[in-house]
Amino acid sequence: MSGAGAVSVAFDQPMAVGECPLWNPAEACLYWVDIDGCAIHRLHPASGAHNCWSMDSEPSAIGLCAGGGLVVALRSGLAHFDTANVLVTPIAPAPYDSAIVRFNDGRVDAAGRFWIGTLYEPRDRPAAEMYVLERGKLRLAWSGGMTNSNGLAFSPDRKWMYHADTAAHRIDRHGFELATGAVATAQPFLQFAADKAAPGYGGRPDGAAVDSEGAYWCAMFEGGRLLRFGADGTLLEEVALPLRCPTMVAFGGDDLRTLYVTSASHHRSAEERARYPASGCVLSLPVAVAGLAEPLYQP
Known about the structure:
The structure is a single chain. This protein has one domain: TolB, C-terminal domain (Neuraminidase). It is about 0% helix and about 50% strand. It contains one helix and 25 strands. β8 and β9 form a beta hairpin. The model has no long low-confidence stretch (mean pLDDT about 95).
């Protein structure tokens, strides 16, 4: 058990769609994006200092870069964001029709590659794709089999890649070869009930992170909760949240024992926002099991 503590609000200005929290230990700061708000945010929790930078299209995922700054997945393509000089430098254009597709969830692996899945916005077929940015070159890892790529995380031994299709309410895992970046065929890991009208509907899997014990923490969008699963799929813990739509989790703090949670408020009803005033805010809670430090993208 992780021994999660009380949930509190870490940043009380609501995001439209807060996503991809990312702890930078060198700055003792939390970064995240507001997808629909087309912005990247930074918070220094100890002082409360906050920065917000507008982007030219929706940012959905970020990673720390070797040499400083962030690698950013925008609808318009991949870029490097120099936070010190507030400079965006394109890396690769979007490899899809940006009228109906955008990048979504992403994460840097231990070899310094940036993996980024897409969201196929018509949602009428599983046409999303997975890409990987390696040393400035973007390549397709796989295509199809999912509609909304999410929940990307790697096991501590680097032998497994976890991945969710939020639209299908499903989490898979793939055998992963760190040296080459090869990904094996998906193996089913968890399947959640998809009938939103059914009693006890618990939401669908969104963003995720793996802790130092190899447990997979998942934000359940529209479920108002976080779930922690063992590597065998056993449910180890459930954390109720004061909002309905958590989007992703990240470990932060000096000891990586603070779990940060982003959330969404856009397209939510006025009744829901009134009932859950923390909707769209960034939450935090202490956990007993530390997370894993995020690797740096190697340009």
